[in-house]
Write a structure and sequence with these properties.
By secondary structure, the protein is an alpha+beta fold. Helices cover 19% and strands 24% of the residues.
Length: 382
């Protein structure tokens, strides 16, 4: 699950001269400036005529919701909305049926099974993020894309057009690609997609049944006492196992971020990461992380608990106070200097998965993302 997003309504993040909101920190390293030639999606919400596109969201009432009040139904469908916001949507954005029934409805209107409700609103400007992505592998059933850091996979409260799902549909409009697993918004690298429902079911099943394997690279602070990584058949022989059970923070836990932060504690879900060191530079190490389980934030929580947090990790590295301040106010120079990178230094470097249509194993690698490679190069020379 992606972390909380900062409120960027007034931090200048959508200005033409600084669309990322971080160019003022360019003296801290080239990774603080947006890469040249990358579409940051600052106009993705606009149509060819320059006017905002229309965003639609459609709901069909199922039997288990029949008889509910309209406002209660919409709140169930979109839990993040406040009661006031639901009432405003009913007044100004809601219609019934494909014909776009122009009548205005009461919040107390009763919904019936089979009813279709449509929310239509002008698109809003979205936080800038890179919409340019590479393709690592593509055939008639499987595509592995090289997701850039900062691009969310699916739509959320703040992202509709600036998502991987959207930009893939724009680039391949006649192909029904669907995403088969997840990467956090700040994580870069290999992500598997399927063309069609049959391939999608097979690939999603492979991830669910742990017949797929994912390996990540992370830049951590410090010099972990883990063995040097090996390649080939004996790669797993040179690994240390981090076996820390994980649980999502809840009310009463020692955390100010319930439902956001993962805590390591007895009684949590079994969580295992195998780690080794690919490269050491002064003050940092590039670490290979092989997932045995796949919990939320697993790698980030595990390496931080071991004493070697990921560079750029505002939650597990900088701490809860810094993370909350970032969500409230966006970037400050103090935070930028503390975290060193504008995103967590985590990269999905390799994925292996059975091909859904052929008796073969796909093994696809993604080169280390440009910003992480530059960060390492800069610290090799210090």
């Amino acid at each position: 699950m992606d972390d909380l997003e900062p409120d960027d309504s007034d931090d200048g993040a959508d200005r033409d001269d600084d669309p990322s909101g971080t160019a003022g920190f360019a003296d801290l390293g080239p990774w603080w400036s947006p890469p040249a030639g990358v579409d940051l999606g600052t106009r993705a919400h606009l149509g060819p005529d320059g006017e905002p596109r229309i965003v639609e969201r459609r709901f069909t009432v199922t039997d288990d919701h029949a008889g509910h009040r309209l406002d209660h139904y919409l709140k169930r469908m979109i839990p993040r909305l406040s009661r006031t916001r639901v009432q405003a949507i009913i007044r100004s954005q809601l219609s019934r049926g494909d014909a776009g029934d122009p009548r205005r409805f009461r919040t107390s209107t009763t919904v019936a099974a089979g009813d279709t409700w449509l929310i239509r609103r002008p698109a809003r400007a979205e936080p800038p993020c890179p919409r340019t992505f590479g393709v690592l592998h593509k055939d008639d059933a499987v595509m592995v894309v090289d997701k850039p850091a900062g691009l969310p996979v699916h739509a959320s409260a703040k992202f509709y057009f600036n998502t991987l799902a959207r930009v893939v549909s724009e680039r391949f409009p006649d192909q029904p690609w669907q995403i088969c697993h997840r990467l956090d918004r700040e994580t870069s690298g290999a992500l598997v997609m399927a063309c069609g429902s049959e391939a999608g079911a097979a690939l999603k099943g492979a991830f669910a049944d742990k017949r797929a394997a994912k390996t990540y690279l992370a830049i951590v602070r410090g010099q972990p006492p883990w063995p040097d990584a090996r390649d080939g058949d004996d790669a797993t022989a040179a690994e240390v196992t981090l076996d820390y059970p994980l649980a999502l923070a809840g009310p009463g836990d020692p955390s100010r971020l319930p439902a956001v932060r993962m805590l390591i504690r007895d009684g949590g879900l079994p969580s295992i990461t195998c780690v080794s060191v690919v490269e050491r530079v002064p003050g940092y190490a590039l670490v290979r992380c092989r997932l045995i389980t796949g919990r939320q934030h697993q790698i980030r929580a595990h390496v931080a608990h071991a004493g070697y947090p990921i560079v750029g990790d505002k939650l597990y590295g900088a701490g809860e106070d810094a993370f909350i301040a970032f969500c409230d106010r966006g970037w400050t120079r103090e935070l930028a200097e503390a975290v060193e990178l504008p995103r967590q230094a985590l990269h999905a470097a390799r994925v292996r998965v059975p091909h859904p249509m052929r008796a073969e194993q796909l093994d696809v690698s993604s080169p280390l993302a440009w910003d992480l490679a530059q960060f390492l190069a800069a610290h090799r020379t210090r």
